[in-house]
Write a structure and sequence with these properties.
With about 475 residues, the protein is α+β, with helices and mostly antiparallel strands. The longest helix has 25 residues. The protein contains 13 helices and 19 strands. Helix 1 runs parallel beside helix 4, helix 1 runs parallel beside helix 11 and helix 11 packs across helix 13. The strands form 6 sheets. Strands 5-2-1-9-19 form a 5-stranded parallel beta sheet. The protein has 2 domains: about 290 residues, FAD/NAD(P)-binding domain, CATH 3.50.50.60; about 140 residues, no CATH class. It is globular, with a radius of gyration of 22 Å. It starts with a strand and ends in a 10-residue tail after the last helix.
Length: about 475
């Protein structure tokens, strides 16, 4: 079987398929695994929201395994579960991304996954509506590779689109903005945290609120005013007075809020990671001219943002940039329509499905916009909705099976969902990747198509549970 794309969904698919007995080829267009986790950022919160607002774990499996291996080796922080974050269902589980890369390559070797890096999937081999393999391009030219089952883990559904799958993508006028991340070192954390404690009202608190918590602005600000360790906070967003003063001076741009996440390194060292300092809208990920324009504009915005932090924010006077990401963080792109389409109502009603392959608790419709209020969902937007009672909802297997086209599975951001229910976050991509990998292994073993597997997913579910996935009941 063939996995197309070595991001978080592709990594999960390849490893878990191999463990289920499949012979696996993983094709990745870059020279590193991890996708947006490694090339585009990573997302500052990396492994976030593994617990719902009830303080129940709803994500396990390959994600939890990789976290635990990093934690035991000293390359991850403990799950951030202070009372405020627990009640908000917004707990961080910070990992050192450079060591994550080392770990994933080790795991690929352990499981016998065959890697083909620096290779672009250029087309599919389609016969009578059935995907028989892929066409790749690399330094050796153009080559056909056939496989029993193909999994699209490209993030933007490129393989599914090539195969002629039904797909949807938000209009260019309203698509969420994309960003380009960078990381800095040399922050005087003692000086910065003193400023933070003295000015708690200058920082965002809304991310720690939801309809099912007793958190209040006052409780959040009280917590801020007593905090000394940046890792107890997780992210710092706002800087309202400083930002507005800088904007008046021409030292800030109006397309993003000011703030950063954290990057834990060895021996307790902490870096600041900026993933919202640039935001460019009207960009469709499948349009290379859009993507080029977005990349150029993001770099300009990041330079402005960094000048602001160097010149205005206490503790950043002697800080310096250590890394600029090489790829954009795509917040929105095509979704491949499947035999089931996850809906906003499924999210807010915490629906369960007989063909569940995992759970998640992210709210629906939390869109970013290219303004200084970017980290807040559009106020009053009809698509916005939190899972009721702080619970979790199921992801059905049918979301991974494209309509009409056979012998293809989709995992990661492009799985079948309405726009408000878009499953784009790291842990969601690893949940769907793990399930797609095991499903593909079963199909390859038995000579079945992924659609035929829909009639009985009991073995798929049993193997996923054996691999540590959480399908039926959340855990303490």
């Amino acid at each position: 079987m063939i996995v197309c794309g070595g991001g978080t969904s592709g990594v999960a698919a390849a490893l878990c398929a191999a463990r289920a007995g499949a012979s696996v080829l993983l094709v990745e267009r870059s020279g590193v695994l991890g996708g947006q986790l490694t090339l585009s950022g990573p997302p500052g919160f990396a492994y976030a929201r593994l617990f719902n607002p009830r303080n129940e774990r709803d994500v396990g499996g390959i994600l939890e395994e990789t976290y635990q291996r990093l934690y035991r080796s000293g390359h991850a922080q403990p799950h951030m579960r202070n009372s405020l974050r627990t009640k908000a269902g917004y707990a961080f589980s910070y990992v050192d991304i450079d060591w994550w890369i080392f770990l994933i390559f080790d795991m690929m070797e352990e499981e016998g996954v065959v890697l083909l890096l620096d290779t672009l999937v250029a087309d599919t081999i389609l016969e009578d509506g059935t995907v028989k393999g892929i066409v790749v391009e690399n330094a050796d030219g153009r080559t056909e590779i056939r496989g029993k089952v193909v999994i699209d883990c490209t993030g933007e559904g490129y393989v599914g689109i090539m195969a002629g799958c039904e797909h949807e993508c938000t209009d260019r006028d309203i698509i969420q903005p994309h960003s380009l991340s960078f990381t800095v070192d040399g922050v005087d954390w003692e000086e910065f945290m003193q400023y933070f404690r003295d000015h708690p009202d200058q920082f965002s608190y809304k991310q720690l609120l939801n309809p099912y918590t007793d958190n209040t602005r006052e409780k959040v600000y009280d917590f801020y005013s007593k905090s000394h360790n940046p890792l107890d906070i997780g992210e710092f967003m706002g800087f309202y007075e400083l930002r507005d003063f800088a904007l008046d001076n021409g030292d800030w741009h109006p397309y993003s809020g000011a703030g950063f996440f954290l990057m834990p390194k060895e021996d307790g060292h902490v870096q600041a990671h900026f993933q919202h300092s640039s935001q460019v809208d009207h960009t469709i990920p499948t349009d290379p001219w859009d993507v080029t324009r977005c990349m150029l504009e993001c770099r300009k915005q990041n330079r402005i943002a960094w000048r602001f932090f160097k010149n205005y924010v206490p503790g950043f006077e002697h800080a310096y940039i250590t890394k600029q990401s090489t790829e954009l963080r795509f917040r929105e792109g095509p979704r491949i329509m499947g035999d089931y389409v996850l809906t906003r109502e499924d999210v807010v009603e915490c629906r369960q499905f007989p063909d569940t392959i995992g759970k998640t608790s992210f709210r629906a419709g939390a869109y970013h916009v290219s303004t200084m209020d970017t980290l807040s969902a559009v106020s009053g937007h009809k698509d916005l909705g939190a899972p009721k009672d702080g619970g979790s909802y199921d992801i059905p297997y049918r979301c991974l099976v494209p309509r009409k086209i056979e012998n293809l599975l989709v995992a990661g951001k492009a799985v079948s969902a309405e726009r408000p229910a878009y499953l784009r976050y790291v842990q969601q991509t690893m949940v769907t990747g793990q399930a797609a990998g095991v499903a593909a292994a079963l199909c390859a073993r038995d000579g079945r198509t992924p659609r035929e597997l829909e009639s009985d997913v009991s073995e798929l579910q049993r193997i996923l549970v054996d691999q540590g996935a959480i399908l039926y009941e959340t855990k303490p």
